[in-house]
Structure formats: C-alpha cells, structure tokens
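A quick aside before the break. I want you to see a complete sequence-to-structure record at least once, exactly as it would be stored in a machine-readable document. Don't worry about memorizing anything.
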Amino acid sequence: MSQSKTVVVVESPAKAKTIKKYLGPGYEVLASYGHVRDLVAKEGAVLPEQQFAMRYEGIERNQRHVEAIAKAVRGAERLLLATDPDREGEAIAWHLAELLRERKAIDGKPVQRVVFHEITQRAIQEAVEHPGAISMDLVNAQQARRALDYLVGFNISPLLWKKIRRGLSAGRVQSPALRLIVEREEEIEAFVPREYWTLDAIAGKGKVSFPARLTQFEGDKIEQFSIVDAERAHQVRDTIAAQADGQLKVAAITRRSRKRNPAPPFITSTLQQEASKRFGFTAQRTMRIAQQLYEGIDIGAGPVGLITYMRTDSTSLAQEAVAEIRQVIDERFGAGALPKSPNVFKTKSKNAQEAHEAIRPSSAARTPESLRGHLSAEQLKLYTLIWNRAVACQMNPAQIDTVAVDLCPPQNPKTLLRATGSTVREPGFLAVYDNREEGEEAESSLPALEQGELVALRELKANQHFTEPPPRYNEASLIKALEEFGIGRPSTYASIITTLQQREYVVLDGKRFRPTDVGRVVSRFLTEFFTQYVDYDFTARLEDELDAVSRGEAEWIPVLERFWKPFHERVEQTETSVARRDVTTQLLDEACPECGKPLAIRLGKRGNFIGCTGYPECKYTRDIKSDGSEPEPAPELLDRKCPECGGDLAYKRGRYGRFIGCVNYPTCKYVEPLNKPKDTGVACPECKQGTLMERKSRYGKLFYSCSRYPDCKYAVWDPPIAEPCPKCGHAIMTIKTTKRRGVEKLCPVKTCGYREPAPELAEAAG
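That is the input. The structure line, written in tokens, reads:
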C-alpha cells in the first residue's frame, strides 16, 4: 500500500472524516483532538524578567494523537495544517509544528497552513490549492492573551486564597463579567419603585373590541407619572365615564407607513443570543451544535459541512453565497422579494476579521425541510435559525402600515384616548424571519373607522403600576452586554459564563444570573483593590491591543510590559497592606445586643451572616437576607392569624424561596405556600367532587385545576364560571379576553367551539 503524499491535520475527528471524503486517496487526514500544547501547570510558566518567555509542555491526553501525526508526516511529502480559522486555531497549528520539529518529523518537508471557512468540496479544494504560511501575528496575539490570563490568574488567585478563602480564583475577562452581574444585583436592591396609574379603555365597533389608553385629560398631556395615586386615578376615570356615557367619538385618525429592515446575518454573539431567546439554549450548547453543523453531518451521501465557521464577528457574505441566496429567494418568493442590489451590512466591531464570513448555510439551496430526516431536533432548530436569518438578510424590507386613532368623549375634545394598530402591507423578509426585539409589540389591527364616528365604550379601568428594576442578566443579555463593553471575544463568551458558574460566583435563578455571597466578596475585592483591571474600558482597550497584534500593527512583548509592571506593583502592595477582615467584613451601624460592640456582615462557609466584631469573646450571630446586602428587616405581617396557634402570620424566606409562616416558629410550625391556590367555588365538571382552584404554572401563567389533583387532572387555562354551555351542555363555561374580540364566554370543550360576547364579565376575567 503506497503512503500518502500529503498529511492534512484538523482539530476534530468528525471534521477529518468530512474532509477526507473530498480530498481522496492522495491525502491522509488526521485529527489533533484540539490543543496539543499548553503552559506548564505551575509557577514560572511565563517569565516577565526574560522578555516574557513562555514554557510549554505537551498535553498528555493528546500525545498519542501527536505521535500518530508524526508517524504519518515522516512518510509524507508535505504537511498541511488545517486547524480552525481563528487565533486559537493558528496557535494550535504553530504548537503542533513545534512538537513535530522536536520529534524530527518534518525535517526538510514543507509545512503549510490552509483554512476552511466552510467544509464543502469547493472550499476545501480551493484552500488546498492555495496554501499559505502560519501567521505569527495571530500566534503572537494568542500567546499574549494566554500570558495575560496566566499572569492574572497566578497572581490574583493566591491573594484571594489569603484574603477571602482557599480555592478561589480570578480571571482577566471573567472578573469584569462578574462585576457586571454584581452591579446589576446592587442596582436591583437599591431600586425604589414608583407608583403610577394608567386609564385603559376597551372600545368596540360591532363584534370587534380594541384597547385604548388615556393620553390627554382636559387639555393636559398624560405622561407616565401624571397620575400617581388611586384617588386621582378614580376621579379621572369617573369624569371620563360620565362625559362619555358609554360612547367615544373618533376625533382624529393618523396613518403612516414605515419600513422594518432585515437583521444582518449571524455572528457568534447574535447567534448565541437568538438561540437563548428562542430555544433556551445555553451559549455552550449553541456552540456545540454549531460545531457539529460546521464539521459535517451525513445527509445521505456522506458527511457534509452545513454551515460556515461559527466563531466570527464579521457580517460579510461571500459574493457567490449572496448570489445563491438571491436565487433561492427568487425561486421561493418571486423576484418581488428581492432588492435591486444585494444588502450589505456594516460590521459593528472595529476589530472584526473581515476575511471571515458571517455564519451562513454552506449552501442556501440546502433548505431546512430537505434536512429534516438527517438532523437531530436541536441541530434542525439551529440550522433553520441560521438558514432563515441568512436568507432574510438579502430580502426586501417589510412595509408596515400603522394607524393611530384618537378617541374622545362626544362633547369633550380636550380628553383623548389613543388606540394604535398596524398591519403588514408587504411582508418582505418577514416571510422568512421575524427580527422583532424582545418586548416589542406584535402587529395588531383596528376595525375600519371614520373621523366623527361613534364607537362603544365597553370598559374603562384605572390600573395601578409600579416601576420595576432592571432585570437580572440572562445568557442573551449578558452576552450582549459583554459585546457592547468589548469584554472578551466571540469565542470566549460561552467559557466566561461557564467559568463563573463553575467557580460558584453566580447561580441561575429562573434562568437569570444572581451573584452568590462569595461572588459579591470577590467582585468587591477586585473592584476596590484592582480597580483598573476590572474596569470595562481598560478590559476593552486591552482586547483592542491584542487585536492590533493579530493584525500585525503592534508587537506583543510591549503590550505585556505595559500591563505587567503596574499590575505586579498593585499585587505586592495589596498583599502587604490589606488584611483579610478588610475584605470579608462590612461594618454595620448597629451595636451587638449582647456586648455592645459593632456588628458586621461576615463571610462564612455557608455564605454571609451577621456577627459581633468582639468574636471570639462574644459569639453573637444571626442570619441575613440570602442576597447578603443588608440585615433581615422586621417580618412583614399579614392581616390574618395562624389557624393553628392564633399567632401572627408573616412572609418568610427559605431555601426554596418565600413562603408564609407563623411568627411563633419553632413552637408552631404552621406554613403555607406564598401563592396558595385560590378556590373559584366552581365544581369540577369531570369528577364532580372537587372545585376548580386558581393556580400558577412554573412559568407564572394562571390556570384552573381540580382541587383533587392528582386524583383528578381536569384543568382549563381561562377563569371558569358555573354556567352550562347552551350548545353542548358541558357543566361550565370559561371567560376569555382578547384584544380583537374583547370579553367572551367560551365552552372549554374544543369540539364544541361555542362562544358569545360577555362584556359584563370583564371584571371577573381580569
């Protein structure tokens, strides 16, 4: 058997299998299985005093793969290094070449670099025909990044051990990310809600109902805080109701047209954000699935790469890809869906590698429907998302007609309520992909109205609201914030989030990140004593400098030198001048009830607690709120008594959240859930023994189920009423409220479908 003339090395065996199919018998394709060499795992791996010399060692688990590559290269004519097309892939290629030189496997043989932005026959053959050299600019940028991470980790982590607790560690990009989460939590805790009221009406024409909101009262514009108490709100409501007397007049109609432009094709961060919002995928899961799609999946005729490389911050598309996408659009949606010239999107990041492409299908002709039988459910979801976004980005904008109708009491044009609606006149890209932002209203329509026409005022309510604090970060919003601040790069977002969770600096609370007590202390320590190094602008500038190195515009050693000297001085100063108590203790303006010395919030093995500063002489302690921000306030009492002992009931917090319990605990152990099911009094139509209880689903949506659950599993989503269906005789009806139809009575039996308007039940439906 003749030996291969060319050895091609990629990172993963799945990718090797796909590429081998395209290259044929003259090539042997092997996998390195990722990184092959790393810094030695001990102090002294980076030597600042020796021009930042870096000491590497082979990664033990991959040495057998390196030996297999070395053996194949000795019998080959040339070596092509085809690791991933980014800085990390370039560094792996360089490390592998260095190891092969040490083993004398490539003496005198050409070592060349090829990159595959997509795993297709055309792209692979073109890359192999035009090989290049390893880019030392990219390698040095990666070496500088690795050195910085090492220097931060090996210098700050021991400080955390001494000043906080053993086993902690800090990272160059994880620390600013942790600061983001902690600062958001502190912002939430400091938030003071403000009360405000809105006046909301349900107007109707014929069988169609639509909402309207008060925007002007007696000539004065109504803004968010124009009405801030119940008395004023009800006064305004009663005045309008008296003036309207059941009718409103159409005072003005404003019609406009607007365009909604398609979003650019995906880059790494936007793909992670959309997959999180639409499917609940973590960033790590999204990248794992994308890697599978990129490396190749068997779709009937062997493995083929279905998408382009998924670590990119460029929104560029290859001309041939745009041409194919436009052809697909023409065939599926007609020439009217195509703009005259291709849409071009400007990349936001000034450091984006424009040689890369956005994430797109390797062939737009390969539709999601054609792959349904070959992909797993999660692979099909992600491929469909990528395909839809790439196709939509080359389609016409959507043309949307909007209408705003001002309504007033028939005899008072100085009081106005506004109803708005919109309809899609030309769907454009919306036929493929809806890029509506989170919280943006869906399209809604109004009935045909004419100025001066009278419509029915079916309901007018004064609604109380409170301003809400900003939400905690979820994966999508955290990635967006990291991108906006310039912290990390596309390939690092998933690892940043994973690391914060693995170190137990943050936990997921309802799919949103909440800092732990330890995470708060670590963030406070770094923010107070290493302010510059967790500063968002500093972190972003450092990333910019590393990007300049990768482009050959800066040398990597000076970048390290500028960072190292002040950082090292800060480490030494902190080690000698900061005591552990300065970090783990926060004094309170409160005296110990036992000895009179000041109390303080302290970090213990199980989180924060309040303890006396006179410890160990005084051992007074007490628990504090789970967020560790302040002492537990006096219990919030309810206006009813404990049914077992007659004591007060109060809101309490336990390991599973808030609940209601007796203040006489542990003498009395009565507890009840915070959201105790509310009995509607409507008999269950199925078992005829229990009653329907108002409950809340795990996602916060109300539903109504039998009190005898799990013995009886009857449930409906809408409020029930004890009234039989006039059509099928089912024992109950339900109340349903929609913007289009208003309040209706519905039969819950799907095969029946009976419904009738019921505006008199609006209050019960609310």
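Two observations worth writing down. Residues 626-632 have pLDDT under 50 and may be disordered. The CA atoms of residues 335 and 642 lie 72 Å apart. We'll return to this after the break.
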